[in-house]
């Protein structure tokens, strides 16, 4: 069966954080919500292909803004959450046919304006990524 990248990311996210989100958000937020927002942030911030490589370049910095209590919970319960999400982003980018200039950095950040049921994802290209991409241009 040919699984879409977002479907694979969703299933991996469910395995990774199934219990945490279920308890924390009482099923109002699920792994698919996270996968969709990460994928959307990635796609909305792609850089054009460079040189002979026809693949678009995916962002390498992802900031997930969550309620402060949610961030505390994740840091306490899953101290490697950022690394795990980074690996899932690598999988999503690769499966989507995008190029990654470097391993994605995922930051979990507190935003007191958000409720425990909300979060946002911001994706961008780091300065090093842009400089190395620019250096590769003919």
Quick overview of this protein structure:
This protein is an alpha/beta fold. The protein has 5 helices and 5 strands, in the order ααββααβββα. The strands form 2 sheets. The chain has a 3-stranded mixed β-sheet. Strands 1-3 form a two-stranded parallel sheet.
Q: What do these coordinates show?
A:
Helices cover 51% and strands 16% of the residues. The chain has five helices and five strands; from the N terminus they run ααββααβββα. The model is unreliable at 132-138 (pLDDT under 50).
**Total of helices:** 5
Measure the end-to-end span.
40 Å
Q: List the helices and strands in order.
A: HHEEHHEEEH
Largest sheet: 3 strands, mixed
Question: What's the pLDDT, averaged over the residues?
Answer: 81
Helix/strand-derived category reads: alpha/beta
Total DSSP E strands: 5
Q: What is the beta-strand fraction?
A: 15-25%
The low-confidence parts are: 132-138
What Rg is obtained from the alpha carbons, in whole angstroms?
A: 16 Å
The portion of residues assigned to helices is 40-55%
Give the spatial strand order of the biggest sheet.
4-2-5
Shape: globular
Secondary structure elements and their pairing?
Layout: H1 5-25, H2 31-44, E1 57-58, E2 61-66, H3 68-77, H4 81-95, E3 99-100, E4 105-110, E5 119-124, H5 127-136
Parallel strand pairs: 1-3, 2-4
Antiparallel strand pairs: 2-5
